[in-house]
């Protein structure tokens, strides 16, 4: 099954990523794997109903962020939903940054935890 991509937001996202020096690729969903830090509860489809409805209505608007070894850094819930919808491929952006650094950069809660202690 081919992904349904909403042209205007999708193209805007591609232009933004290209301006930042990033490229998008289509990768087979079966080749991706969740990061070890991702809690199993986050991968439950029952927690993704609103996201599922959004993807069905608008398509996938934000690519997954993955490491070169195809470990998902950001987008675990999107991966769970599109996998369940029967998609064969998904749009990803590769990052060459350290996995931990890339995770912290994309997750506000992780950034808050990293703040140095008050002295």
Task: Tag the structure with descriptive keywords.
single chain, 119 residues, alpha+beta, Conserved hypothetical protein from pyrococcus furiosus pfu- 392566-001, ParB domain, four-stranded mixed sheet, 5 helices, globular, disordered C terminus
Report on this structure:
This protein has 5 helices and 4 strands, in the order αβαββαβαα. By secondary structure, it is of the alpha+beta class. Helices cover 39% and strands 14% of the residues. The protein has one domain: Conserved hypothetical protein from pyrococcus furiosus pfu- 392566-001, ParB domain. It starts with 6 loop residues before the first helix and ends in a 5-residue tail after the last helix. Helix 4 crosses helix 5. The longest helix has 13 residues.
Contiguous low-pLDDT stretches (5 residues minimum) are 114-119
| Strand line-up of the largest beta sheet | 1-4-2-3
Radius of gyration: 15 Å
CATH topology: Conserved hypothetical protein from pyrococcus furiosus pfu- 392566-001, ParB domain
Overall shape: globular
Per CATH, the class reads: Alpha Beta
In CATH, the architecture is Alpha-Beta Complex
Report, as a whole number of angstroms, the end-to-end distance.
55 Å
Number of helical stretches of at least 4 residues: 5
Reported for the largest beta sheet, the result is: 4 strands, mixed
Residue share in helix: 25-40%
Structural class: alpha+beta
User: What's the helix-strand series?
Assistant: HEHEEHEHH
**The number of domains:** 1
The amount of beta strand, in percent, is: 5-15%
Mean pLDDT: 75
- Count all strands and give the number: 4
């Amino acid at each position: 099954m081919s992904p349904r991509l909403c042209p205007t937001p999708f193209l805007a996202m591609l232009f933004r990523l290209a301006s930042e020096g990033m490229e998008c690729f289509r990768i087979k969903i079966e080749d991706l794997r969740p990061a070890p830090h991702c809690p199993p509860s986050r991968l439950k489809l029952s927690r993704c109903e609103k996201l599922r409805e959004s993807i069905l209505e608008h398509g996938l608007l934000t690519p997954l962020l993955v490491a070169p070894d195809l470990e998902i850094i950001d987008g675990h819930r999107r991966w769970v939903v599109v996998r369940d919808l029967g998609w064969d491929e998904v749009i990803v952006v590769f990052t060459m940054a350290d996995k931990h650094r890339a995770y912290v950069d994309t997750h506000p809660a992780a950034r808050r935890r990293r703040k140095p202690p008050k002295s």
